[in-house]
Design brief:
heterotrimer; A: about 500 residues; mainly alpha; 20 helices; globular; C: about 100 residues; elongated
Chain lengths: ~500, ~120, ~100
């Protein structure tokens, strides 16, 4: 066949690829280190190596930081621009927090430390590839490299029925999402004849009409497949079940990092490749955002399990984030990147406290497990309070700034009604966020349960350690993230400046 | 171009028709005298000792899954092999890296004892 | 024969896969249907590669094959793990997580 005769070896920019190479090398080293015997290796060396890998990758990402629409690497397969690098830094931070939260998790012991942390690193490298994807093929590879390790991690507490169930559920639903994305990408490729996002953008309006049915079907299928990953309604039903069943450190990682990766690819695909079609997909995504905000906030109201509550709240937050994609402007890109950073610190603070309290409470992650927490251990109650107020969007927290930025972008992009929806959604969300705060500070200390207890979610329970000082790393994650939530809320300008730099990464909008 | 497939198609159609007609005729006009011996799955040899709820050991699944994984990875070698001259030394180094990564996976599987038959 | 027919066939295969995932209860059959969905995508990619005369779609299809194998292996691994723990492997009876 003549069609692939004119192939040449690609030019590879190893400097640009260095964060990814560091991640892959680190994943392999961690895997082999996990084979060594000895409790010290499993408990100390392996997590340490994983953390070092993430720190090295982060340092390399900072070293190659370059604003503007940078030249893509490897035959325009990956773009290490500010969007990729800033999102990667969020992945690394989420990964470091997850490692700290996993140190005492029973899932690590059951799955094996080497396997657990290798899968975590593999998933993070998939996220980096996904955020950097400048080509439909790398986009799909990144999506799968992100997802497949996560399916295993969800089922990693192999002694728990709930964990295995959540792994299998996530696998089935996630694979449906991936296959839908694949078919959508195939149709986009069929309509434009290109796999490069840049060339697709050039082809739309030139070789192929903006309203081409094949292209529009492809965009619709791709958007719904990505909506599965980002838990955007009506593709969100798996979220509470999987979040509840998975080991809690993994739930925290999924809630934060997977969502960030999904939105990074939303931004790149829709703002860079399909921006000429914004009039076509804008209203459809806006309708999804509206539905997601309402369904997520209403669904969270009746929840008693904190993990399910945070899952529904994550659905609602995905709706807010989608507003930044809908407008398809530079301001929307900046606002989404800014909100993703604030979302990371607020959610990590909340999950760290949930982990700390469910390890000591016989009630698992039920809301009654935090009753009286304010009197018992204020060092845990304050971070959760700040996280809840931040997620609700109280002033002087990061959440307020992020929402303000998103509403600004929505109004600026002629979607003022979406801005109003964000405000309405935040008002509804006060019902359940404040219920958690009230349980901590106003309810009396819950009496010990009598008789055998059926624990709701034992997946991450380790040996009960009654004193919060017995798990300093969990408390440290909670305190640092809560402090960042306040800091960003009061001094947002450094993060604003970063968001503006991220905004320069896509030139077409 | 597709015209060259016509004889094959005719052959396929003829085969289906002849085979189908003969099978159906056999069922209609053939004599039927069922007996216990004829009901058995095999006409000769010992009766099967494997009962229907026989369960495979876990090792079968483990080895089969590992086989699928290592087997399918070879698919990445084909495109490179087709264009080996165009890629040159670059392809050699890349494939070495790829195979080394597979080797790391193999070492892991081996040391974890997944290849031992239990 | 026009590649359009292959694209139509791929759409049919994809839809059979979707229907199977939604309706079948045995997780092994669900995995099979996921494969159908992915391979529907593969057929579409190869047909489009033929239509446009570029190799990208073919390379994409090769990569999808590997990814599909990985997905199935992880799925089988989870099912075997559940089976060993004597858990019901019926997706409808997975009721630990509800609400």
């Amino acid at each position: 066949m003549s069609l692939i005769a004119q192939v040449q070896a690609p030019t590879v920019d190893f400097r640009g690829l260095s964060p990814l190479i560091a991640l892959v090398v680190g994943a392999n080293v961690v895997l082999l280190a996990g084979l060594l015997r000895g409790a010290g290796v499993q408990r100390v060396l392996v997590p340490l190596l994983a953390a070092v890998t993430l720190i090295v990758a982060g340092a390399l990402s900072v070293a190659i930081w370059e604003t503007g629409d940078v030249e893509p690497l490897v035959q325009s397969a990956l773009a290490m621009d500010t969007l990729t690098l800033s999102m990667s830094l969020l992945f690394y931070l989420a990964g470091l927090a997850t490692i700290a939260l996993s140190l005492r998790s029973s899932a690590v012991g059951e799955a094996g430390a080497g396997e657990y942390y290798t899968l975590l690193l593999a998933s993070i490298s998939g996220m980096v590839v996904l955020a950097a994807a400048e080509n439909l093929i790398t986009l799909f590879v990144g999506l799968e490299l992100l997802s497949i390790p996560l399916y295993v991690l969800c089922g990693s507490a192999v002694r728990e029925r709930a964990s295995l169930e959540s792994g299998l559920k996530y696998l089935v639903i996630g694979s449906v999402g991936s296959a839908t994305v694949l078919y959508g990408l195939a149709l986009i490729y069929g309509a434009t004849g290109q796999t490069d996002l840049g060339r697709i953008a050039a082809a739309i309006g030139e070789q192929v009409e903006v309203g081409d049915p094949l292209l529009l079907t492809g965009i619709a299928l791709t958007a719904s497949g990505l909506a599965f990953k980002a838990s955007v309604a009506p593709f969100h039903q798996w979220t509470p079940d999987v979040y509840q069943g998975a080991p809690t450190p993994i739930t925290a990682f999924m809630a934060v990092a997977t969502k960030t990766a999904a939105f990074a690819v939303f931004l790149r695909l829709f703002d860079a490749a399909l921006s000429t079609n914004q009039v076509e997909w804008g209203p459809a995504l806006a309708a999804l955002a509206l539905a997601t905000i309402l369904i997520g906030n209403v669904g969270a109201i009746g929840q008693r399990s904190l993990k399910r509550l945070l899952a529904w709240s994550g659905v609602a937050q995905a709706g807010y984030l989608l507003a930044g994609v809908v407008v398809g402007t530079r301001l929307g890109l900046q606002a989404t990147a800014f909100y993703l950073a604030t979302y990371l610190v607020m959610n990590m603070a909340a999950f760290a406290v949930v982990i700390a309290s469910e390890r000591v409470s016989e009630r698992g992650d039920d809301i009654s497990s935090v009753e009286g927490l304010g009197a018992r251990s204020p060092v845990l109650a304050w971070p959760l309070t700040i996280a809840m107020l931040g997620l609700a969007g109280f002033p002087a927290t990061a959440g307020f700034m992020g929402k303000f930025y998103l509403i600004d972008a929505a109004v600026d992009g002629q979607y003022a009604w979406l801005g109003v929806t964000i405000v309405v959604g935040s008002m509804i969300s006060l019902v359940y966020y404040l219920r958690v705060v009230a349980a901590m500070w106003m309810a009396p200390d819950a009496p010990p349960l009598a008789g055998p207890v059926r624990r709701m979610s034992p997946a991450s329970g380790g040996s009960p350690e009654a004193d919060p000082r017995a798990q300093p790393e969990t408390v440290a994650v909670a305190l640092v993230c809560a402090a960042l939530t306040i800091a960003i809320g009061i001094f947002p300008s450094p993060l604003f400046d970063l968001a503006v730099q991220v905004g320069t990464s896509i030139s077409g909008i | 171009m597709l015209g060259s497939y016509l004889p094959a198609l005719v052959f396929l159609a003829l085969g289906l028709v002849v085979g189908g007609v003969l099978t159906v005729l056999n069922g209609i006009i053939g004599p039927k005298r069922p007996g216990t011996v004829k009901e058995q799955p095999y006409e000769c040899g010992l009766p099967s000792e494997v009962t229907s709820n026989f369960r495979f050991g876990i090792s079968f699944y483990l080895i089969a899954m590992l086989f699928i994984l290592f087997d399918i990875e070879v698919v990445f070698l084909y495109p490179v092999a087709v264009q080996l001259e165009a890629f040159g030394l670059f392809a050699l180094i890349e494939i070495m890296v790829f195979i080394f990564l597979l080797f790391v996976a193999f070492v892991f599987v081996w040391r974890r004892g997944a290849l031992e038959w239990r | 024969m026009s590649p359009v027919w292959f694209v139509a066939l791929s759409a049919v295969i994809f839809c059979i896969g979707v229907g199977g995932v939604l309706m079948r209860r045995n997780p092994l059959v669900v995995l099979l249907c996921l494969e159908l969905m992915l391979n529907g995508g593969n057929l579409a990619l190869i047909s489009f590669a033929r239509m446009h005369g570029t190799g990208d779609g073919q390379i994409f299809a090769l990569i999808v094959m590997v990814v599909a194998a990985c997905e199935v292996v992880v799925g089988l691994g989870l099912i075997v793990a559940m089976y060993r723990r004597r858990l019901a492997i019926d997706v409808d009876s997975m009721s630990e997580l509800r609400g």
